[in-house]
Amino acid sequence: MPFDNMLKNIRRFTSLSPQEEKAFSALLSIRKVKRKEFLLREGAVCNFEWYVNQGCFRSFYVDKKGLEHNIYFAIEDWWVSDLYSRTVQEPSNVSIIALEDSEVIQIKQADLEAFMLEVPAMERFFRLSYQQSLVSQHLKNLRLLSMNGEERYIHFREKYPALAKRIPQKHIATFLGLTPEFFNTIHARVLRLK
């Protein structure tokens, strides 16, 4: 079944009956995304929640100087969206782009909301998922305040080894709040220590 991995992901936090899984699957569609293709562009309203079935994405913000700041990465078995834009139906401040040829499973916001009202177990899943996401963001903010650049990079490599191998270094640098030049110095030093 094309949605098996996604359903396994959902089962980590909650259980749906076979009928509920079937009803939920009927709301899903598969979307192929080419490398450098946008799932969401800044200024558009986000109307989907996406599950990464295959590939890699980055969510980023462009500041007034035109500099990109990476906020989030998503690989297989992760979810990606713009929760702000999707929830309040306002234009997004971020863009989401594929770093590799990818495939997502998508569900429309309206369908997801209706299904969560009908099936409280699904609302539980997303509540727990969002809580985990908020905790991760909170810890990232604390690391930005309490760790130096090298410590942040070492932590990133240890916590997300798959991302460290797949994400271009320039994107890791902005995610960690570092300039590319400083990141290159740190990266070289960390590799020498290994």
Automatic annotation (TrEMBL):
Q: Which Pfam families match?
A: cNMP_binding
| Domain Cyclic nucleotide-binding intervals | 31-116
- What superkingdom heads the lineage? Bacteria
Q: Which InterPro entries does UniProt cross-reference here?
A: cNMP-bd_dom (IPR000595), cNMP-bd_dom_sf (IPR018490), RmlC-like_jellyroll (IPR014710)
Q: What is this protein called?
A: Crp/Fnr family transcriptional regulator
